[in-house]
Amino acid sequence: MNTWIDARGATMDEIAAFAKAYPFAILPVGSFEQHGPHLPLDTDNRIAEAMALETAKRSVGMVLPVLNVGYAWVWRGKPGILTFRFETYMAMIRDIAESLAGWGVKAVFVLSAHGSNPQPVKHAIRELIHEKHDIAVLNSLYTGLDEMLAEAESERWHNDIHAEEIETALMLAIAPDLVHMDRAAADYPPVPDDYGRSELSMGMFMRSGVFGDPTPATAEKGRRWLEIGGRRSAELWLGYLQRRGLYDPASGA
Ligand SMILES: [Zn+2]
């Protein structure tokens, strides 16, 4: 049996057989939010889904459907935004973990492509899941970002990436028809002193919606970074399962 499966196309019998052999799941989590004038609202969801598939192909687990509304308080009021409250997001993660544990899934990797999701996921693990549900939860953004940043030609905006070279390149690799490179332009909004120390958030001082420079993005870079993200995220996930004695990549069980 293959060590991974796309749960979206599987039947009940197929997923039951898979979960018996490999009781592991990968849950891509994204966000439906503005990504400047050149990328679609669905950007983080497409990236999360692609990263989850690339991760699964190099490791083990069933890829679940993407959770396509995130915790995105910073963009509230901006056209297109859909966001859950922090507590709602925590409760949702708990409910999904509980659902999975109910049919024998032993570990789930909540793989995020949106920077704010890991915060409510972390608190859901601590307050709602650990010692209450029989399932281990790994919580991380796709990894390998340092390698991508080292290869990127553009300068990073502050300490975030949003609708810039990396996200644009990934989208050129994943869904080129949805990327409008003719509208892509750099934007480095000045960072106020109280950013990160108060209620002040990106949405309050954004200009075009871009934070960084998307113009050097190419599909070739995107394909390479997707591979790096999948490889590094797979290493993290396999290490996590191995340390907990849930899976030994060498023996395959
Ligand atoms: Zn994004």
Summarize the helices and strands and which ones pair or pack.
Blueprint: E1 4-6, H1 12-21, E2 24-29, H2 43-57, E3 61-63, H3 86-101, E4 107-112, H4 118-129, E5 136-141, H5 145-151, H6 165-174, H7 202-205, H8 219-243
Parallel strand pairs: 1-3, 2-3, 2-4, 4-5
Helix pairs in contact: 2-6, 2-8, 3-4, 6-8
The protein binds zinc ion.
Zinc ion is lined by residues 35, 43-44, 114, 162, 167.
CATH architecture: 3-Layer(aba) Sandwich
From the helix content, strand content and strand pairing, which structural class follows? alpha/beta
Q: Give the overall shape, derived from the CA principal axes.
A: globular
* Percent strand: 5-15%
**End-to-end distance:** 12 Å
CATH superfamily: Creatininase
The CATH class is identified as Alpha Beta
Number of discrete helical segments: 8
Number of domains: 1
Taking Cα atoms only, what radius of gyration do you get, to the nearest Å?
A: 18 Å
Molecular structure report:
It is a single chain. The chain has helices at residues 12-21, 43-57, 86-101, 118-129, 145-151, 165-174, 202-205, 219-243, and strands spanning 4-6, 24-29, 61-63, 107-112, 136-141. It has 253 residues and is an alpha/beta fold. It has eight helices and five strands; from the N terminus they run βαβαβαβαβαααα. Helix 2 (43-57) links the parallel strand 2 (24-29) and strand 3. It starts with a strand and ends in a 10-residue tail after the last helix. It has a five-stranded parallel β-sheet with strand order 1-3-2-4-5, with helices on both faces. Helix 3 crosses helix 4. The structure holds zinc ion. Zinc ion binds at residues 35, 43-44, 114, 162, 167.
